[in-house]
Amino acid sequence: MYAAHYAPLVRLAYVTTGSRPAAEDVVQEAFIEWYRRGATVREPVPYLRRAVVSRCTSWVRRRRLERRHAGVAEPAWTADSADAQAVRAALHRLNPRQRAAVFLRYYLDLPEAEIAEALGCRPGTVKSLLHRGLAAVKEELDAG
């Protein structure tokens, strides 16, 4: 279970947090929590996705609050190409739930029902998150 799902969950967490060490920590915490819950979790993969998204959202909120109080600007993304950098910057400007929805849909190719379960919302909310997220990314890329 761990070996099969660790890497995709870290990628999900990385897209949301923008930090590889934080992503690894978040995923480790999610697996620990799943292990502690044991038999009470009927479907571990959706549980782990939701735990990762929830922990990432909390992590991002804490970091923004810390930066705001410290007066530090948001970090810039680095990439090999200008196109990749523009896409990452546009994704970084999305809120964590939109970013997670876009990643789950277009990178992990999950259906809306599974994304809704991972995000703890209804499928209609997923459609809205995807629509608004993609519109924001398109607007950002068209402006640049």
What key attributes describe this structure?
about 140 residues; 7 helices; about 0% strand; about 80% helix
Instruction: Quickly give the CATH architecture.
Output: Up-down Bundle
CATH class category label: Mainly Alpha
Order of helices and strands: HHHHHHH
Note the gap between the termini. 42 Å
Structural class: mainly alpha
Strand content: under 5%
CATH fold label: Butyryl-CoA Dehydrogenase, subunit A, domain 3
Q: Please state the CA-atom Rg, rounded to the nearest Å.
A: 16 Å
CATH superfamily: PhyR, sigma-like (SL) domain
Q: Please mark out the parts with pLDDT under 50 across 5 or more consecutive residues, or reply none.
A: none
Number of domains: 1
Shape: globular
Helix content: over 70%
Rounded mean pLDDT score = 86
Number of helical elements: 7
Sheet with most strands: none
Number of strands: 0
Protein name: SigE family RNA polymerase sigma factor
Keywords: DNA-binding, Sigma factor, Transcription, Transcription regulation
InterPro entries: RNA_pol_sigma-70-like, RNA_pol_sigma-70_dom, RNA_pol_sigma70_r2, RNA_pol_sigma70_r4_t2, RNA_pol_sigma_r2, RNA_pol_sigma_r3/r4-like, WH-like_DNA-bd_sf
Organism: Dactylosporangium sucinum
